[in-house]
Amino acid sequence: MASFQFELVTPEKLLFSGPVESVVVPGTEGDFEVLAMHAPVMSTIRPGVIVVRETPNGAPRRLFVRGGFADVSPLGLTILAEQAIAIEDLTADRLRTEVTVAEQEASTATGDVAKATAEMKVGQMRELQRALA
Question: Where does the ATP synthase F1 complex delta/epsilon subunit N-terminal domain start and stop, copy by copy (predicted)?
């Protein structure tokens, strides 16, 4: 199978850069898999798990993203993520704390935009819990 260049970028850092065989992206219209020679497309992504296969028979790398954009071009795939966390870097305790903090922010948020943003964060954290279960 042919490989292509994949980069996962967050505001803080370049989380991944290198050749891969495939990447499954949680698009807002549904998950989609990118392979070499994929047609150009740009999509928003929803909170979910990106599955990266670096080699055909290798174990996949799983990364949680909180949303962002995916750009497939002739040069490869670039994901600009609001936040991304390697699944292996998360612990159940850390995740419970994140959910609790998000719930507290949602309950104390004032204004429509702040409340909607806080509620979205709660949903994202719960999505991550489901992905890890």
Answer: 4-84
Query: What's the CA angle centered on 32, arms 29 and 36, to 5 degrees?
Result: 145
Domain residue limits, the chain: 4-87, 90-132
Q: Which amino acid is at 129?
A: Q
At 61-118, the pLDDT tens digits run 999 888 899 999 999 999 999 889 888 887 778 778 878 888 898 899 988 988 888 8
CATH code of the domain made up of 4-87: 2.60.15.10
Pairing of strands 22-27, 30-35: antiparallel
Residue corresponding to tokens 């670096």: 54
Residue 42: is its pLDDT beyond 90? yes
For the whole model, what pTM was predicted? 0.78
Residue with tokens 């042919």: 2
